[in-house]
Specification:
Elements lengths: L2 H10 L3 H9 L2 H14 L6 H22 L1
Helix pairs in contact: 3-4
GO biological process, one term: mitochondrial respiratory chain complex IV assembly
Protein name: Cytochrome c oxidase assembly factor 4 homolog
InterPro entries: Coa4-like
């Protein structure tokens, strides 16, 4: 499944996790982690993708917290 196909599914599907990731702006990075794990069959080889995704989520959390203040 390509990233473009996943994007279309995310837009039409009501999966709450994908909705949250899309809203945070981290959905594409999530897909990159999934794609890497599927390709390598070893999440330990995907540390760059995992770290990029984690940084995106942390940035989104900080932005959400600062906008509440």
């Amino acid at each position: 499944m390509t990233i473009r196909t996943r994007k279309k599914l995310a837009e039409s599907d009501e999966d709450p996790v994908e909705f949250m990731l899309k809203k945070s702006g981290c959905l594409e990075l999530h897909y990159k982690v999934q794609e890497c794990i599927a390709t390598t069959k070893d999440w330990r080889r995907c540390q760059n993708e995992v770290n990029d995704f984690r940084n995106c989520i942390e940035k989104h959390k900080k932005n959400a917290e600062s906008s509440k203040s």
